[in-house]
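Support request, priority: normal
Reporter: lab tech (M.K.)
Component: structure prediction queue

Hi team, I submitted a job for Glucose 1-dehydrogenase from Halomarina oriensis yesterday, and the status page still shows it as pending. I've pasted the exact input below so you can check whether something in the sequence is tripping the parser. The sequence length should be 257 residues. Please let me know if I need to resubmit or if it's stuck on your end.
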Amino acid sequence: MSRLLGGSTVVVTGGASGNGRAIALTVAEYGADVVVADRRRDPREGGRPTDELVASETDGRATFVECDVTSLDDVREAVGAADEFGGIDVMVNNAGIIKMGHITDLTVEDYEAVMGVNARGVFLGCKAAAERMMEGDGGSIVNVSSTAGIVGVPNNSIYCASKGAVRLLTYALATELGPDIRVNAIHPGTTETQMVTSDVEIVGTEKGERQQESIPLRRFGRPNDVADSVVYLSSDLASYVTGASLVVDGGVLQGIH
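Reply from support: The job had stalled in the queue. We restarted it manually and it finished. Here are the results:
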């Protein structure tokens, strides 16, 4: 595997499971050391902890930090853990949750929970990373938004609001933190993680099969599709890319527009 990220240290929030797990493993395969920041160490999909896999299956080093992304102290601790490997170079704000339902059924508590993790968590991740990057040689921040942060999805109002906030925060910070810190967003479509197989039950259902047929590439995304996009935006291949929204959805939005 290429050493495209050799010498870099990447912090991944929500790195224990799903897209975050794939991101952590993939950046390590490209030569990075990794801080896995999550509320839990055991992956939701089962198997060995992500930090153990990085250490055993790649040349990268890894550590796990228990982290609630709604806590600035926790996020700063996760960013600080990168000092073990020479300091943070890349921050991947990936942690996210979803609550679906008609707006008349959703509660204020639902709103606060989703916005807390998805919007506040990304803001705090950007803040903590920027503080450290500005002390050094800069770096790259990659925020994981969603296609739901670009177009509205019925019965998904809170999630859309939170991911739209991530998109606009990314644009603002790209201007604010340049030229030494690049800030970009990734917008995955439906991706085969526990969130869509268990939490909202899309993949593996009749509704999911119909949705899949509407995708130009005729499949749902895989965590590695998201991870590969993170590698690009984290690397020098994207040295002239900031304030961008990289859509990783198999062509769905192109068909909508």
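The chain has one domain: 9-190+226-249. Residues 149 and 163 are 4 Å apart (CA to CA). Let us know if anything else looks off. Ticket resolved.
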